[in-house]
Write a structure and sequence with these properties.
69% helix; mainly alpha
């Protein structure tokens, strides 16, 4: 099966994609709520609108992390090669990078879900 995404995309940058998406999501969610709470009186938005906006941002972040995990899984060889990948060859480095990226993607997915839990549980801003 031919993939739409070329193999050249699988570089060292894919290793940092998922943690970067988590960090941007974390900062974005908390900054948005902080700004909304500080300026709530002058805005015509309800908190439910902000909550929906952040839910959409969360779904987008999770989708990018899943794409990163899929690229990592593909780079790892679809799980055919078992770790440890400690050979001093290009193939060994590529397999190690794919495996490490897959683990970071899983960790980042869980971190985004945990950062999104307060969006469900918190009430409106206290004045």
């Amino acid at each position: 099966m031919k993939s739409v995404i070329p193999r050249e995309v699988e570089s060292l940058w894919t290793l940092f994609t998922a943690p970067t998406v988590w960090a941007v999501h974390f900062i974005g969610c908390y900054a948005t709520v902080a700004i909304y709470c500080a300026k709530a009186a002058s805005l015509d938005l309800g908190f439910d609108t902000v909550r929906l906006l952040l839910a959409g941002f969360t779904v987008l972040a999770l989708a990018v992390i899943v794409l990163s995990a899929w690229l990592a899984w593909r780079q790892w060889g679809f799980g055919v090669h078992d770790p440890p990948h400690d050979e001093p060859t290009r193939k060994g480095r590529t397999l190690f990078q794919g495996y490490a990226t897959l683990l970071l993607s899983g960790l980042s997915f869980v971190a985004v879900v945990y950062a999104a839990i307060p969006l469900i549980l918190i009430a409106e801003c206290q004045r």
